[in-house]
Design brief:
Layout (H helix, E strand, L loop, with lengths): L10 H16 L3 E4 L2 E4 L7 E4 L6 E8 L5 H11 L5 E4 L1 H6 L1 H9 L3 E4 L12 H17 L7 E2 L8 H9 L3 E3 L13 H11 L5 E5 L7 H14 L3 E2 L2 H9 L7
Parallel strand pairs: 3-8, 4-5, 4-9, 4-10, 5-6, 7-8
Antiparallel strand pairs: 1-2, 2-3
Length: 252
């Protein structure tokens, strides 16, 4: 049996509710386009949060901005399961660990950037953000990675102005929609449960490969085969983007 509840508001409460709903509808909202999901208006710069909801493809992404211990265990798990992921790394970290960046790319994983310094872009003037992005690009160019076009703003903090700047500089801004907060060490099983229960078609999963992610590698031992058993295909972020924006075609 289903139960329906009717809330009785005073007149002023009703108006407050309508104003709140109107505010959120008019400002930030997730919209669907060609089966993919982005943030902000369809007519303005967007950040991708989800791929094609009609396909069983998902993107496994890792942020890394400090430390050099945990990433090796994570790369080992990915290699054993023959899974390609996308690593978003800061330019500052890449400068300090070029050997690890090389190992990531040798294992056929995709690179994205977290800017140069891992500092929220919302706490900086837009001119400073532009300088940070340019410096990050210089780092990757010098290291031989000149085709890095994926950007995840530090802390996942951004607004329309930041997205517009990034797009003008040739970047696709990538967010996420599955986040177990593994960097907080909530417990291996908690990470597993969150990812397994919340992952659906086209999802972008956020995990971390910095040294704060003490339980991530262990969680992957269950998460990777578990998601495969559910029929999901792991694809690099760029492939998820291309699939989301591809026009459907009939095949004879």
């Amino acid at each position: 049996m289903e139960y329906f509840y009717v809330w009785r508001f005073n007149k002023w409460k009703r108006w407050v509710t309508l104003l709140v709903v109107a505010f959120f509808t008019a400002t930030l909202i997730w919209f669907e386009r060609d089966g993919s999901f982005s943030m902000f208006s369809n007519n303005e710069p967007t950040a991708m949060t989800k791929g094609n909801a009609n396909e069983k493809n998902i993107a496994l992404t890792f942020n890394i901005s400090w430390g050099e211990q945990r990433v090796h265990d994570i790369l080992k798990q990915l290699k054993e399961k023959n899974i390609q992921a996308t690593f978003f790394i800061s330019g500052e970290w890449a400068e300090r660990h070029p050997d690890i960046v090389e190992k990531i790319t040798e294992n056929k994983h995709e690179l994205g950037i977290l800017g140069y310094r891992y500092k929220s872009y919302l706490e900086q003037e837009i001119e400073t953000v532009q300088i940070d992005l340019r410096k990050a690009r210089e780092v990757f160019d010098k290291m031989g990675y000149k085709e890095v076009k994926l950007l995840r703003p530090p802390n996942g903090h951004f607004n329309k102005e930041i997205i517009e700047l990034a797009e003008n500089m040739g970047y696709n801004v990538i967010h996420w929609n599955v986040n177990p907060n593994d960097w907080k060490s909530p417990g291996t099983q908690a990470i597993v449960d969150h990812v397994m229960k919340n992952t659906t078609n086209g999802d972008i999963i956020l995990l971390h490969a910095s040294d704060s992610a003490k339980q991530t590698a262990a969680a992957l031992k269950t998460v990777l085969p578990g998601l495969k058993n559910k029929g999901f295909n792991f694809v690099p972020m760029t492939e998820l983007i291309n699939q989301a924006h591809a026009d459907p075609k009939l095949v004879d």
